[in-house]
TrEMBL record:
Reaction(s) this enzyme catalyzes, per UniProt: a (3R)-hydroxyacyl-[ACP] = a (2E)-enoyl-[ACP] + H2O
E.C. numbers: 4.2.1.59
Keywords in alphabetical order: Cytoplasm, Lipid A biosynthesis, Lipid biosynthesis, Lipid metabolism, Lyase
Family, per entry: Belongs to the thioester dehydratase family. FabZ subfamily.
Summary of the function given for this chain in its UniProt record: Involved in unsaturated fatty acids biosynthesis. Catalyzes the dehydration of short chain beta-hydroxyacyl-ACPs and long chain saturated and unsaturated beta-hydroxyacyl-ACPs.
Taxonomic lineage from the root: Bacteria, Pseudomonadati, Pseudomonadota, Betaproteobacteria, Burkholderiales
Protein name according to UniProt: 3-hydroxyacyl-[acyl-carrier-protein] dehydratase FabZ
Organism of this sequence: Pseudoduganella plicata
Keyword Manganese annotated: no
Name of the encoding gene: fabZ
InterPro entries the record matches: FabA_FabZ, FabZ, HotDog_dom_sf
Length: 155
């Protein structure tokens, strides 16, 4: 687990906290985090992302659902860091809802999507977060995400 002094995570530390792998791992680095509060992470969007082959070959745009997924993965990392646990092969984070999702600008190859996620509350096993994605300081998307953490044996 990351110590209180080191508030960044590299890709190997992220892979210890998320079960996702290429092409679905959408968080490249955690810049900073504070347990029970916030996390800031980045996704470097490159032209060789698999989804750009079909979305869209003539004008590549990162799909909105994948931008939301990147925010949800960032939120899951914050939850595990807050609980001070590393998930095992039976842990799964289910995305259970989104409110007030808005897309404000396209995210394209060469962009760096900065993801800021704040825990709003945790109640009855449901985590609710405020999530914002920006590119070069411009709002790209925002919304309120809800997730729950389960053991696959329970699911």
């Amino acid at each position: 687990m990351t110590t209180a002094e080191n508030k960044t995570l590299d890709i190997n530390q992220i892979k210890e906290l998320l079960p996702h792998r290429y092409p679905m791992l959408l968080v490249d680095r955690v810049l900073t985090w504070e347990a029970h509060k916030t996390i800031t992470a980045i996704k470097n969007v490159t032209a060789n992302e698999e989804f750009f082959n079909g979305h869209f070959p003539h004008k590549p745009v990162m799909p909105g659902v994948l931008m939301i997924e990147a925010l949800a993965q960032t939120a899951a990392i914050l939850s595990f860091l807050t609980m001070n646990v590393k998930p095992d092969e039976n842990s799964v984070v289910y995305f259970v809802g989104i409110d007030n999702a808005r897309f404000k600008r396209p995210v394209v190859p060469g962009d760096q999507l900065r993801m800021d996620v704040e825990i709003l509350r945790v109640a009855r096993g449901i985590w609710k977060y405020k999530a914002v994605g920006t590119v070069d300081g411009q709002l790209a998307l925002e919304g309120e995400l809800m997730c729950t953490i389960r053991n696959t044996a329970e699911a």
